[in-house]
Amino acid sequence: MSIYKKLFKITSTMDKMKKDSTNPFFNSKYFDVNQLIEAVRPALIAEDLLLLQPIENGAVGTRIVDVDSGDSVEAFIPLPDLSDPQKIGSAVTYYRRYTLQSLLGIEAEDD
Fold first, then answer.
1. CA distances for 44 relative to 3, 9, 57, 64, angstroms
2. Which residues pair with 78 in a beta bridge?
3. How many other C-beta atoms lie within 10 A of the C-beta of residue 49?
4. Residue 15's pLDDT is what?
5. Facing residues of 63 across strands?
6. Where are the alpha helices (DSSP H) in the chain?
7. With contact defined as beta carbons under 8 Å apart, do 65 and 74 qualify?
8. How far apart are CA 39 and CA 59, in angstroms?
9. Fewer CB near the terminus (10 Å): N or C of the chain?
10. In this structure, how many other beta carbons lie within 10 angstroms of the beta carbon of residue 73?
11. What is the pLDDT of residues 21-61, one digit of tens each?
């Protein structure tokens, strides 16, 4: 089975993600990257798909690899030019969530 068929099988059964975290700066809700990974990892493993979230060439990404064929799909977002490690860490976390969410087409549940 191709990686696209495996991903289709996974994404066609996924529910919307519940926003369970709060951003106090913008008074908004979101779902956190750990919640997202926890929700998708079992389905990926069941289809022999490996989730990687590397930082390469100044960009944060999500790569899903079919361990049977070696085929992969990926999405990357360039990191902003920051010098504050705290802000870099926040950007990495934010971009990990959004590259995975967009790669799998995961919707957020509206409040």
1. 11, 10, 26, 9
2. 59
3. 22
4. 72
5. 52, 74
6. 3-11, 33-46, 85-104
7. no
8. 24
9. C
10. 15
11. 566 666 665 567 888 888 899 999 999 999 999 999 999 99
